[in-house]
Design a protein that fits this description.
By secondary structure, this protein is an alpha+beta fold. It has 3 helices and 4 strands. Strands 1, 2, 3 and 4 form a 4-stranded mixed sheet that branches.
């Protein structure tokens, strides 16, 4: 599936809207499985920052669902974090069981264990033990 955004982007450094495109590239994204792994192609633009005092000359589009430099959607990450917490299994094992592609040495979901630890409910300390 190929997608494209329809909103004018905003520079992440200065907050100014841009209307001048610099280039376009396709970015592969992992998303929630639907009868197997899903790969989304985002037709993503690099934009010129039009604020002359801004230090950032150009920037790529981003959205809340796909933040800067993300290789998967936020909803996939959230689903995987919840599954890791519920199952207590490793990220790679949970991803395999849920039919989500996770890269080997360059694990794209490396932030999942930290997020799972942050979201995991704290266990009350045993008072008498």
């Amino acid at each position: 599936m190929t997608i494209e955004t329809d909103q004018l982007p905003v520079c992440s450094s200065c907050g100014v809207h841009s209307s001048r495109r610099k280039e376009r590239r396709l970015q592969r994204l992992r998303d929630i499985p639907l009868a197997g792994p899903v790969e989304v192609l985002w037709s993503k633009y690099r934009w010129y920052c039009e604020e002359t005092t801004c230090g950032r000359l150009s920037f790529f589009e981003s959205t809340p669902q796909v933040p800067r430099r993300a290789r998967s959607t936020s909803r996939l990450r959230d689903q995987l974090v919840d599954a890791v917490i519920r199952s207590g299994r490793a990220v790679s094992e949970t991803a395999l069981l849920r039919r989500v592609l996770v890269d080997g040495p360059r694990r794209r979901h490396r932030s999942v264990p930290a997020e799972a630890a942050r979201r995991r409910p704290t266990q009350p300390a045993d008072a008498g033990h």
